[in-house]
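Action item from last meeting closed. Structure (242 res):
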């Protein structure tokens, strides 16, 4: 894996950093794109390569991807962990919060994939893993019930299918993970209702490593015949009809 380059958006976050460490332990060169922060800069101590990027700005995405390809030669895998999570009901959502949600989750995911495809993977092939959410495939009552969040994450499932169809002939695979609740700081802020655990067959929330295991599989050649798929990782919660 010595020469393999993985780029993770949102790689300073709860799930993103665990994914980044897992790729690093397996010999990848790890490049992180995230909003400017002290946390991003501290990644240099972890022997990772940090790049500040705001995914709501397409020009910024293109400049940063140009810089990454120039400095690291190519991108073998792109893991799009970056996302905005909110718990707001329809009465709390105005036009501005709707647009921000879609700018980060749907538009940012599309234009980052497009930049990486055009500037590297179109010539070299590669694997892209997107982050959807259980909120894209079922409704929630109470915490996590946020129409603009669910709709933006459903868009990711759709664009995963579409781009897999378009880019397969270039040797580029695209899949998505669809996590249920994962215990991260961002999730704790949403005040997850613990009684919901009763409706999870495996009786627990995921930990970030549960998601990293699936992401790594989808990025690696072990999944070489899988593309356009969205893999649910939620302890079986989506198969309960109550
Ligand atoms: N935690 C859960 O329960 C859960 C469940 C389902 C899906 N997800 C998805 O998993 C992903 C990671 O979740 P997490 O719990 O680690 O959250 P997190 O908030 O810790 O991580 C999200 C990361 O995205 C980055 N980000 C946000 N806006 C950005 C922007 N405009 N430009 C660049 N980067 C930006 C943040 O800086 C952060 O590092 C998200 O896409 C989330 O929607 C999480």
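Sequence:
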């Amino acid at each position: 894996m010595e020469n393999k380059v993985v780029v993770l958006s949102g790689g300073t976050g709860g799930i993103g950093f665990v994914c980044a460490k897992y790729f690093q332990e397996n010999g990848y060169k790890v490049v992180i794109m995230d909003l400017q922060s002290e946390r991003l800069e501290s990644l240099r101590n972890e022997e990772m390569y940090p790049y500040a990027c705001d995914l709501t700005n397409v020009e910024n995405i293109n400049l940063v991807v140009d810089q990454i390809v120039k400095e690291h030669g190519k991108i073998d895998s792109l893991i799009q962990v970056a996302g905005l999570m909110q718990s707001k009901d329809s009465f709390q959502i105005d036009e501005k919060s709707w647009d921000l949600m879609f700018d980060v989750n749907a538009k940012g995911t599309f234009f980052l994939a497009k930049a990486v495809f055009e500037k590297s993977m179109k010539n070299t092939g590669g694997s892209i893993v997107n982050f959807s959410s259980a909120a894209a495939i079922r409704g929630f009552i109470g915490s996590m019930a946020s129409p603009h969040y669910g709709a933006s994450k459903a868009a990711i499932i759709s664009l995963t299918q579409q781009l897999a169809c378009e880019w397969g002939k270039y040797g580029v695979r695209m899949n998505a993970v669809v996590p249920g609740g994962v215990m991260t700081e961002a999730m704790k802020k949403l005040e997850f209702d613990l009684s919901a655990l009763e409706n999870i067959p495996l009786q627990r929330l995921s930990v970030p490593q549960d998601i990293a295991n699936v992401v790594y599989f989808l990025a690696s050649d072990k999944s070489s015949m899988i593309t356009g798929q969205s893999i649910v990782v939620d302890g079986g919660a989506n198969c309960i009809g109550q």
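Note appended to the action item: The chain has one domain: 5-234.
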